[in-house]
Amino acid sequence: MASVNKLSPIPHPPTKPVVGNMLSVDSSAPSQHLARMAKEYGPIFWLDMMGAPFVVVSGADLVDELSDEKRFDKSVRGSLRRVRLIAGDALFTAYTTEPNWSKAHNILLQPFGNRAMQSYHPSMLDIAEQLVKKWERTNATTKSTSSTT
Questions:
Q1: Which residues, 6 or more positions from 71, have their beta carbon under 8 angstroms from its beta carbon?
Q2: Which of 35, 47, 135, 140 could form a cystine bridge with 54, CB 3.0-4.6 A?
């Protein structure tokens, strides 16, 4: 019996054998490339990453819908299930119905909520700018060192 691809109604670019779309995404600017693909395929599309489906959602309405905690639940599977054997029911390894998930979620909700993240933004921007300047200096040093040898 053939398997049914549940993603088939969602648009997707053509795939190549074995690698699917793995080599289709620009590795030097993946986010920008996915944004261009969203303009072509719409606010939701999927890629075949060597047999593993990768669904991209870019439309604000769809992202809001997917972020609705009342309708969707976190899944503990694969490597998280293995970590759970060692770590127990922590924030990432607990099922949302377990008391420890709720405790951890409520503790982190305040410092990572929208208002808090807005207050962190200037500091995060400053650190990102410093990091980019450091990379520019390191790159310039590397180029000048390699050109003199």
A1: 65
A2: 47
